[in-house]
Design goal:
homodimer, alpha/beta, 7-stranded parallel β-sheet, globular
Chain lengths: 406, 406
Amino acid sequence: MKQIMIIGGDGFCGWPTALHLSSKGHDVTIVDNLSRRAIDEELGANSLTPIESIETRIAAWKEVSGRDIAFLKIDIAKDYTALEAAMASLRPDTIIHFGEQRAAPYSMKSPVEKCYTVDNNIGATHNLLCAVAGLGLDPHIIHLGTMGVYGYDDDGLEIPEGYLRVYIPGDDKTLFQRDILYPTNPGSVYHMTKSMDQLLFQFYAKNDRLRITDLHQGIVWGTQTEETRLDDRLVNRFDYDGDYGTVLNRFLMQAAMDHPLTVHGTGGQTRAFIHIQDTVRCLALAVENEQTDTGKVRIMNQMTETHTVRDLAQVVARVTGAAIANVANPRKEAAENGLRVSNQSFRALGLNPITLEDGLLAETNEIARRFAHRCNPEMIPCVSTWTDNQQPGVVRPVAATRSIAA
Amino acid sequence: MKQIMIIGGDGFCGWPTALHLSSKGHDVTIVDNLSRRAIDEELGANSLTPIESIETRIAAWKEVSGRDIAFLKIDIAKDYTALEAAMASLRPDTIIHFGEQRAAPYSMKSPVEKCYTVDNNIGATHNLLCAVAGLGLDPHIIHLGTMGVYGYDDDGLEIPEGYLRVYIPGDDKTLFQRDILYPTNPGSVYHMTKSMDQLLFQFYAKNDRLRITDLHQGIVWGTQTEETRLDDRLVNRFDYDGDYGTVLNRFLMQAAMDHPLTVHGTGGQTRAFIHIQDTVRCLALAVENEQTDTGKVRIMNQMTETHTVRDLAQVVARVTGAAIANVANPRKEAAENGLRVSNQSFRALGLNPITLEDGLLAETNEIARRFAHRCNPEMIPCVSTWTDNQQPGVVRPVAATRSIAA
């Protein structure tokens, strides 16, 4: 059993991961600055599900499972000394790093949020790596990255797991083969920070022989996992606001509130998805199958299926009976793109995913309808624009509704 | 004539650039936090040349040239508000960004300097870009990058100017042609921050249509330019300490102090060089030949010749009569590497460089010998090690001396 430090362990992915690893018998310490809760306050938003304080969560877990989870309130981006002291004392076998601002729309709101996202995310990642190297520790570091670093240029090629094989022409036109870090094309300040993280990992893996796994995750949907379902006080957060709510959550809330599903642009954007239950399974697989190579970062794509936003809306419309409306796209991105992604690493480790088709009805009933009375519908539209000359989600003529559904 | 903001305009490259652009009639405002002077204090080091305060420098320039240079003391990495206010008031046509911690050995000293380098360099670059985008300004932004982002993997191929043409195999083995940002392989935390800067530039050029030129500069040698020579109070700094002194400056000081030239390892490391006079000429060429494309960063290699460290030592030995000693290499790098670099862009703009052969004797007499009485020889060795298991510059048996020289 491993000593595991989970940075950002109070958040949407961090909390269920902490519970899952604790349930497997690992010694879990959560390090978190509770910034996600502070941002809720700042935005006047709230999780649809009534999440408890971290103290209550941990006490409830002890009651339910008999297991202890430790908690340290540290802002790792700002307090290097406290982070270093915690590491020196715990000497973790594994460090899981969720400690970054993770909403693309929030990262594009204004200079304040742009600068915060850069300072927080780069500072957190670098402090962590620098402290591990400085202390001479050898933990396996697992970072939650994003599929978004690859960008969504549609060239018809399958997106590999982090590294791209290319051929470079020499002076006499001979082609030299190289495996390079996939050239990034981030679409927001948030995604840009995750691209920059990759360079931090590359350097510290090379220079200090740190063992690093970077998980390029798709958009996470779903709320509950086997462990968070065990007690209402363990419930995971469900964000539906325009900043933190992912597209599927916002569709589900719109459906629960009898509002048309607002599709940005044509809805032709294809994205990769994964259920939160599979996220925690992937994290456990990454923990149990350590990166043993030094020198080169291990990168795995953590996603299970791809859908266009349009198709997603149609599935939700079919399950819930909601209408669909197309609105202007606040993001600067291609109207339509294909997406093919390799996820061979996790498949090979035995991941057997939950599909959207299978899990969506449960999510609708268990979360969106159950807690609909807590929803503030004014929070749902995305109002961050990517540049000044764009208009946030103005509702255009409502497209066909149930008849669209397949 | 242009309104030009020079961030880091009190530094080694910034100061002579400010004078050169002022002499050409541009309106120059220096923005600097004077951090380079503070780091001298911290290290107990000092410029060999007796540099004056920024106020005295500017007053002397007014006396000599009749021209005004403005100065604003702002820490752009920490004080976004002051930076934004300065930009809003000046509305510069051109912003030149030298405002980064620029010594690789300093960036590797300890966690304190590693974190400072990341916070300062990433914070400075991002704040600048974010403020320009937020204010809706359209200046030409010129950044001083480094050849070091390319790394020194010796594959025999010429290093292009920022972008690499590659071929990617598709499903049916058809090759797709792409021009990608050259995959970076930084060798220090400092170089890593410049690699990360590239992703910041890429994003803001794409998302906000900022016009950006990134100059990937070689190792700068030389001290004086046409303008700094006009008055002793205008003298440029000359660093010879193990942190900030470049290899050539340290050789020159060792020669002036009758100490053997300490070559790290075999001295087979090939690097790109440029004289400070050519640096300011390149900057003027970049200012006068604006980047007009938006969407893609213009990258130019700012270097004029390549040498191995061994050859460099031999040239200095020949000119000065010094001996040569090989010491352990504190850096984690290949013992020997070739280097071929394209510098077509500046050649095409008319750059006619000063060669090491031509300029070295003047540098020796004008600076190293003239100010040798100010030298503290204990500051010359490089004591930062790249990892814990390395030894800083322990002197190994002294190799042959003048007989080595070609």
